[in-house]
């Protein structure tokens, strides 16, 4: 195309704008510094795809460059970039004729600003409906996606939004419903369900997560549910199971199973197959259940394992490791005396590694004897990740008693010389009464916050005590709830660090969140409470009941609150950590070493030679992150917790929340009640 001369340009500028249209070769176009749009955005590739398929639908606005050979684009920089990209990919010619509007040099910046400012973007709702109209015209999704340079999923999402209830779409246009809410509601095509989920919910329950959960409450989230992970989504679909997909979720999320009964049956069948394999080990009974809680397992006693004699190879390996541990221990002592910290650290790590290998070898030598297997049983279940877990060596009370009787008979022990079954074990070196009260104070605080987070358990605890007192003419002995309403909030006398503990802080925040919204006038308070829903009232009750919990005791093995702790799934590791100040400085050196043997066995010999003052801080460092808890915070029934299964279950089911995160979670859970009270 011939170059336009200055005289021609001047003539064009003097003419009407409609007559200033030119077809300019792409090679003669370049961006102008006077283009007010400085940021082109990240969608040039998509725009280029669209231009290639449907053509350039809007001209560029240009001025003649000073060299008289080129034109500078003052409006249409994104379109120019898209055309240049197509030319670079050889999709169009380098001299492709581009329609341009020529404007006077003096008005270039005004023309650029006018095009970018005066243009009003299409409302997203109009875009959704336009996509639906294209489908109604018979256009395939893939073609529409290609026309606009987007993926088919983007088109499917626009179509899904176009199918939302007309009432909700009208409110979206009026800005009373936002896009995130609309995407959550689009998980179902049922307009009545969409409207009920949104309009029947109070404002504070209209967030996208709450809306999505309300519409899928009868379905199973494939991303999080252990049964789905165990059975497998493909197996479920192959069995005819229905699925609902959330197009707006991430790639590995947003899949909901609509047939809960089917996934339960498939899981049960698969677990039954594993149970058959376990049954062939010789157990008296084997049960397969998809879920077994801590309380379920506490109903059983654990059968003892027997240590078999190691074979020649194992004995040689054990002796070699023991010799190596001794050698490393001596080298570590020498390094510590020489204050060679780097070498000492390396030797300490090696000692820990050797200790772990020894423990693993010893564990392999422990097994259930044939007599035990003939009386005991096993439960096959799933952990939270959907992985099979086998709890072997479970004994019902009658089976445990029979095994003990058999052991006495086989051992030739006369019953008169045998201690009574229920007689207490010889007392071991333990903790002082003062420390017991301190630890039980922290346990009280943890039980209080956990109960406050569990309205069902809180209500059950309250009713339990009232039934015993009113209907059974008895005093509650298991659940430490003061029905006379005596809040236990003076734990500082037992544990000086209680006020700053995560559990105490979390409970105070819960109490403040609820209490500050309540009127102090008696009649006015009753009216406010009467207006609350039953769910809100029960949540408020949970906070109040929790504050009456009191399990402070001077006895290390006091079982107060055991049932309550099991009901709320109390995990002291979420609320308390063993520190020098809070624990190790208050027990004997022997107790510290016994504890270290459990969480860092490779360090026992080294710590045994250190002064008591230094051992406490070192024990705190070694215990960090191990999850170790004093015996007082563990299950009261030591006979019902075999070390192997208990450790496995703990590692698989332990929460990853820090105490601070757990406390924050507790406060968040009560925001609903606080907002309801404010309303």
Structure report:
The chain is α+β, with helices and mostly antiparallel strands and about 675 residues long. It has four domains: about 5-120, Conserved hypothetical protein from pyrococcus furiosus pfu- 392566-001, ParB domain (Alpha-Beta Complex); about 150-260, no CATH class; about 280-415, no CATH class; about 435-575 and about 630-679, no CATH class. The chain is built from 31 helices and 14 strands. The protein has a five-stranded mixed β-sheet with strand order 1-5-3-4-2. A hairpin with a 6-residue loop joins strand 3 and strand 4. Helix 9 runs parallel beside helix 11 and helix 16 (about 310-335) packs antiparallel against helix 17. The model is unreliable at about 1-20, about 410-430, about 465-480 and about 635-655 (pLDDT under 50).
Strands of the largest sheet, in order across it?
A: 1-5-3-4-2
Q: What number of structural domains do the residues give?
A: 4
Tell me, briefly, the overall form.
elongated
Strand share of the residues?
Answer: 5-15%
Quote the distance from N terminus to C terminus: 73 Å
What multimeric state do the chains show? single chain
Structural class: alpha+beta
Tell me about the largest β-sheet.
5 strands, mixed
Secondary structure tally: strands:
14
Overall average residue pLDDT: 78
The helicity comes to 40-55%
Count of alpha/pi helices: 31
- Unreliable segments of 5+ consecutive residues: 1-18, 412-429, 467-479, 635-656
Cα-based radius of gyration, to the nearest Å? 37 Å
């Amino acid at each position: 195309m011939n170059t336009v001369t200055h005289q021609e340009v001047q003539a064009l500028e003097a003419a009407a704008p409609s007559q200033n249209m030119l077809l300019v070769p792409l090679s003669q176009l370049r961006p102008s510094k006077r283009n007010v749009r400085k940021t082109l955005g990240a969608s040039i590739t998509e725009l280029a795809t669209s231009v290639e398929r449907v053509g350039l639908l809007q001209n560029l606005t240009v001025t003649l460059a000073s060299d008289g050979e080129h034109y500078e684009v003052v409006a249409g920089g994104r379109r120019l970039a898209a055309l240049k990209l197509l030319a670079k990919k050889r999709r169009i010619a380098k001299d492709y004729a581009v329609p341009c509007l020529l404007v006077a040099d003096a008005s270039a910046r005004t023309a650029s600003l006018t095009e970018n400012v005066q243009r009003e973007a299409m409302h997203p709702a109009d875009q959704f409906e336009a996509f639906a109209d294209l489908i109604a015209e018979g256009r395939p999704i893939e073609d529409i996606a290609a026309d606009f340079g987007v993926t088919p999923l983007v088109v499917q999402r626009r179509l899904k939004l176009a199918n939302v209830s007309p009432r909700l779409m009208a409110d979206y246009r009026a800005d009373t419903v936002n896009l995130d809410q609309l995407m959550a509601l689009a998980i179902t095509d049922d307009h009545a369900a969409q409207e009920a989920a949104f309009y029947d919910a109070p404002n504070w329950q209209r967030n996208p997560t709450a809306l999505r959960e309300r519409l899928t409450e009868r379905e199973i989230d494939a991303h999080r549910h252990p049964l789905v992970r165990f059975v497998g989504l493909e197996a479920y679909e192959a069995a005819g199971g229905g699925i609902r997909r959330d197009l707006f979720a991430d790639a590995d999320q947003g899949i909901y199973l609509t047939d809960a009964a089917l996934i339960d049956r498939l899981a049960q069948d698969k677990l039954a197959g594993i149970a058959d394999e376990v049954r062939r080990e010789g157990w008296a009974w084997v049960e397969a259940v998809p879920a077994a809680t801590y309380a379920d397992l506490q109903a059983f006693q654990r059968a003892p394992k027997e240590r078999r004699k190691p074979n020649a190879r194992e004995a040689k390996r054990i002796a070699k490791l023991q010799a190596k541990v001794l050698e490393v221990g001596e080298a570590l002592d020498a390094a510590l005396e020489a204050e060679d910290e780097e070498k000492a650290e390396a030797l300490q790590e090696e000692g820990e590694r050797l200790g772990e290998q020894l423990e693993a070898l010893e564990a392999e030598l422990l097994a259930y004897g044939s007599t035990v297997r003939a009386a005991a049983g096993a439960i096959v279940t799933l952990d939270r990740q959907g992985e099979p877990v086998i709890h072997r060596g479970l004994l019902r009370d009658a089976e445990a008693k029979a095994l003990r009787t058999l052991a006495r008979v086989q051992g030739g022990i006369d019953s008169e010389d045998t201690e009574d079954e229920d007689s207490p074990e010889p007392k071991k070196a333990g903790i002082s009464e003062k420390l017991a009260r301190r630890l039980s104070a922290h346990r009280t605080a943890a039980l209080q916050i956990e109960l406050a987070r569990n309205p069902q358990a809180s209500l059950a605890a309250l009713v339990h005590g009232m039934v015993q007192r009113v209907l059974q003419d008895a005093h509650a002995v298991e659940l430490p709830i003061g029905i006379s309403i005596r809040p236990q909030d003076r734990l500082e006398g037992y544990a000086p660090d209680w006020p700053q503990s995560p559990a105490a802080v979390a409970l105070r925040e819960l109490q403040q969140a609820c209490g500050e919204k309540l009127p102090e006038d008696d009649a006015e308070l009753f009216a406010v409470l009467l207006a609350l829903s039953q769910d809100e009232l029960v949540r408020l009750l949970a906070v109040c009941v929790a504050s009456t919990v009191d399990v402070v005791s001077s006895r290390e093995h006091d079982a107060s609150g055991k049932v309550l702790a099991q009901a709320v799934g109390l995990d002291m590791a979420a609320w308390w950590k063993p520190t020098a100040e809070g624990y190790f400085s208050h027990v004997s050196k022997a107790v510290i070493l016994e504890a270290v043997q459990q969480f860092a066995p490779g360090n026992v010999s080294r710590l045994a030679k250190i002064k008591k003052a230094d051992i406490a801080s070192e024990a705190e460092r070694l215990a960090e992150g191990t999850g170790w808890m004093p015996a007082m915070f563990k299950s009261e029934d030591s006979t019902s917790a075999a070390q192997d299964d208990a450790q496995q279950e703990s590692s698989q089911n332990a929460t990853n929340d820090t105490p601070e995160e757990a406390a924050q979670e507790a406060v968040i859970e009560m925001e609903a009640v606080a907002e309801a009270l404010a309303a």
